[in-house]
Amino acid sequence: MNPKADMRQRILAAALKRFAQKGYAGTSVRDIVTVARVSKPVLYYYFSNKADLYRALVAWAGDERLRLMREAAASSDMLPGRLRELCAALFEFTRTHRELMRLAFASALAASGEVPPEAHCFEKGRQSFEFIQDLMEQGRKEDALNRRFDSRALAMGFSGLMHLHVLLHLLQPEQPLDRPTAEAVVDLFLSGAAPTTREVSVADDSIPTRRQPCAQAAARKRTPQEL
Q1: Using CA atoms, how far apart are residues 95 and 176, in angstroms rounded to an integer?
Q2: C-alpha distances out from residue 134 to 18, 72, 76, 222, Å
């Protein structure tokens, strides 16, 4: 990495640390330059102001997440494989960039004035959602998904499952966010929670047949001549 790029990343890392600890409003430029161990003129050489720093972090989080999702999905030819790789890539990115993902979620949920209005977190999120929606539409055309649902509904269902796990991990780091979890999310989405007809049939066959109480009582009252 060249010196200029290295310095820029150093300032971004310091800003991320302070924003994660104190929030956007509670963080000052002085806080950032203190952590980065640079002067204010150096910071202003790379970024116009504090808002510019925040926007750069949110933009990088969205761009990198989308890039990883695209690369992961391209590594498989079938929809189940694409979704498993995509989900696993997002989970790994979250584990290795927890503070950055917290910042992205905070930006999406922030009230007016809590973060810079130019932080395009919704635009970045929309791009990721549209990519997943395109995968779902492709899956519908390949008959890999139920056509009763349109691509938007399918994308919302899958994204909801996936991002709920991300949010739980950010709130409680002990919550697993690994490949087995990603595979379980995709299996639940594709197969559903309801048992298949075969599974219901097997379950019914495993239950011993029992007489109803009234039938048992009637059997006990029969005379030898009736048997």
Answers
A1: 10
A2: 37, 15, 15, 69
pTM given for the model: 0.80
Same domain flag for 147 and 89: yes
111 and 185 in a single domain? The answer is yes
**Measured distance CA(4)–CA(6) in Å, rounded:** 5
Q: Domain for residue 2, yes or no?
A: yes
Of 145, 149, 147, 151, the residue nearest 132 (C-alpha): 151
Q: Are 182 and 88 spatial neighbours (Cβ–Cβ below 8 Å)?
A: yes
The answer to the question of residue 216 being in a domain is: no
- How confident is the model over 33-85, as pLDDT tens digits? 999 999 999 999 999 999 999 989 988 888 999 999 999 999 999 999 999 99
